[in-house]
Specification:
- This protein has helices spanning about 10-20, 35-45, 60-70, 85-90, 160-170, 190-205, 235-250, 265-280, 290-300, and strands spanning about 1-5, 20-25, 50-55, 75-80, 95-100, 120-125, 150, 170-175, 180, 185, 215-220, 225-230, 255-260, 285-290.
- It has about 300 residues and is of the alpha/beta class.
- It folds into 2 domains: about 1-200, TIM Barrel, CATH 3.20.20; about 205-305, Transcription Regulator spoIIAA.
- The chain has an 8-stranded parallel barrel.
- The longest helix is centred in the middle third of the chain and has 19 residues, at about 190-205.
- The chain is elongated.
- About 35% of the residues are buried.
C-alpha cells in the first residue's frame, strides 16, 4: 500500500503506525500537495527509514530531480508526465512510470518502458496526464497480462478498495484523496479503514489452510500489528507453522492470538519459542496473546519471560 501526497507530520505518523509500505512526496509545484525540499527532508527524517519514500514528478528536468535526490533520501521516483524511456533509464534510482488510463489511451505504450521498476495505472485527466482527479477509471480498460509489478491508482477509497483489489489483482494500490479530509491532510479513520482492508486481504491470500481468522489489529508500542486468531482446537502443528510464517512473510510482524486455546503450558511454550526463533531468523517480529490459564502455567514454570506477549 502506498499513500501519496504526504504533507504534514500527523498524516505521516498515522501511516507509519498503520504499517503503510510506501509514502509519496509530491514535488510538482502546481499540485495542492506540493512539498518543498526543506519540508520533504523534515518528513523523511521523521519517517526514519520505516518505509519506502517515493518522490512524485511530472515533466520536470533531470537536474531538478537530481537536486531533490541530493536533499531527500528517496527510494524511488514516480513520473506522471510524458517522460521518455531514455529519460527513465537515466535516473539513478528505481522509477515508477505512471500511465494515464482513459478513452483513447494506448496500452501498447507499455512496451516502450521495459526497464521501469513499477507500472502505475491512474485516471487520465482532461489534459491527458494522470493524477489529481479523485475519480476511478473503468478498470475494464486495464491491459491484459501486464508485466509485474504494477500498482492501481485513481479514486481509490475505503469503500471501493476491496472490490478494486479483488477484481483487478494489482501488486499494490496507491491512495491519496480517498483517505483525506482536505488536500494533503490525511484522515486517520479513513487510513485505518483502508489499511484494515489491505491487512485482511493479505491474510486471506496466505491464510488458506491456517485454522482461525484475521482479527482486528492490535496496538503494540504505539503501532498497529496484524493479528490472526487461531481456532480453539489445535490443528496440524506443521501446517500452522507454515501458515504463520506465510503471514509473517507478507506482513513482517504479527500477533498470533491463542487466547481461545488451553493446554500444557510447557508444551505450548516450547512450540511458541520455536515459532518465535524461526520468525527472528527470517527477520520478522512475532508476538503472542495467550489465555490466563496458560499464562498462569508459564509463570509457575518460570518460562513466561521467554515469550514475547501482548496484553
Amino acid at each position: 500500500m502506498k499513500v501519496c501526497g504526504i504533507t504534514e507530520e500527523a498524516g505521516l505518523d498515522c501511516c507509519l503506525q498503520l504499517g503503510v509500505d510506501h509514502l509519496g512526496f509530491n514535488f510538482v509545484r502546481t499540485s495542492h500537495r506540493y512539498v518543498d525540499l526543506e519540508r520533504a527532508r523534515h518528513l523523511a527524517e521523521r519517517a526514519g527509514g520505516s518505509c519506502q519514500l517515493v518522490g512524485v514528478f511530472m515533466n520536470q528536468s533531470r537536474d531538478e530531480i537530481l537536486q531533490v535526490l541530493e536533499n531527500v533520501p528517496l527510494d524511488a521516483i514516480q513520473l506522471h508526465g510524458a517522460e521518455s524511456p531514455e529519460f527513465c533509464s537515466s535516473l539513478p534510482i528505481p522509477v515508477w512510470k505512471v500511465f494515464a488510463v482513459g478513452q483513447g489511451w494506448d496500452p501498447t505504450s507499455l512496451i516502450r518502458y521495459p526497464g521501469v521498476a513499477v507500472r502505475l495505472f491512474d485516471t487520465a485527466s482532461r489534459d491527458g496526464v494522470s493524477g489529481g482527479t479523485g475519480k476511478a477509471f473503468d478498470w475494464n480498460m486495464l491491459p491484459a497480462n501486464t508485466k509485474r509489478p504494477w500498482f492501481l491508482a485513481g479514486g481509490l477509497t475505503p469503500e471501493n478498495l476491496a472490490g478494486a483489489i479483488t477484481l483487478c489483482r494489482p501488486d499494490g494500490v496507491d491512495l491519496n484523496s480517498g483517505v483525506e479530509s482536505a488536500p494533503g491532510i490525511k484522515d486517520p479513520e479513513r487510513l485505518a479503514a483502508a489499511m484494515a482492508i489491505i491487512s485482511s486481504l493479505r491474510s486471506q491470500v496466505v491464510g488458506v489452510g491456517l485454522p482461525g481468522r484475521h482479527s482486528p489489529n492490535v496496538e503494540v508500542d504505539g503501532s498497529l500489528w496484524p493479528c490472526w486468531k487461531l481456532d480453539p482446537l489445535r490443528g496440524d502443528p506443521s501446517a500452522e507453522l507454515r501458515g504463520v510464517m506465510g503471514l509473517l512473510d507478507v506482513h513482517g510482524r504479527l500477533v498470533v492470538d491463542l487466547s481461545a486455546r488451553s493446554g500444557h503450558a510447557a508444551e505450548t511454550a516450547s512450540e511458541l519459542i520455536q515459532w518465535q526463533m524461526l520468525a527472528k531468523e527470517r527477520g520478522h517480529h512475532l508476538k503472542f496473546r495467550i489465555s490466563e490459564s496458560t499464562m498462569e502455567g508459564l509463570v509457575r514454570l518460570s518460562i513466561g519471560n521467554l515469550l514475547e506477549l501482548v496484553d
